[in-house]
Amino acid sequence: MIGDQPLHEFNGRISEIVNKFNPQMVFCPYPDRHIDHRLVFDSLMVATRPVSITKDIGILAAYETLSETHWNAPHIEPNFTPNWVIDITEHIEKKLDALRCYKSQLSDFPGPRSIQAVEALAKFRGTQAGFGYGEGFHIVRMVS
Questions:
Q1: Is the pTM higher than 0.85?
Q2: 34, 68, 96, 139: which has the fewest C-beta neighbours closer than 10 Å?
Q3: Closest by alpha carbon to 60, among 76, 83, 78?
Q4: pLDDT tens track for 83-110
């Protein structure tokens, strides 16, 4: 469990991974209702500070997670508002097939982690940007 280890050790492990791979793009969970998402987000904010090797990261963006991101308390906690949508129209079936591999995480509709809900969110995000299906992100930092 992420929260069971000292924070400085977890931050160090995340920093080691970021430094090892020297990514150009980093995607992290939005700091939502799920405590592990918040811890990973916070640790990535430390690991991707724009200094040394990590100054070359071009995009740092947070993604939404159905059943977690949407349960933050409005106007008390941050709400997910995408400012970048990627067209996933050609990949929606692969995304849904991949999701089906996580049977323990799926619920029946109208559950938020149902195949229908995930598809509906992708369709909604797509319509926000003029695509058939989209994946929403919130850009934390972008350097060009």
A1: yes
A2: 139
A3: 83
A4: 999 999 999 999 999 999 999 999 999 9
Q: Give dist(CA 104, CA 115) in Å, integer.
A: 13
Give me the CATH number covering residue 51.
3.40.50.10320
State how many domains the chain has. Answer: 1
What is the arrangement of strands in the sheet containing 84-87, beginning at the earlier edge strand?
A: 25-29, 59-63, 134-142, 84-87
> Can you tell me whether residue 141 is helix, strand or coil?
strand
| Domain housing 20 | 2-142
Closest C-alpha to 105, from 89, 92, 118:
118
Q: Closest Cα partner for 140 from 59, 66, 19, 86? A: 59
The mean pLDDT value for 22-39 works out to 93
Q: What are phi and psi of 60, to 5 degrees?
A: -120, 115
107/115 Cα distance (integer angstroms): 8
Residue 43 clears pLDDT 90, i.e. is over it: yes
- Reported as type and span, the H/E element at residue 64 is none
Contact status, residue 115 vs residue 106, Cβ threshold 8 Å: yes
Q: Phi and psi at residue 98, in whole multiples of 5°?
A: -65, -40
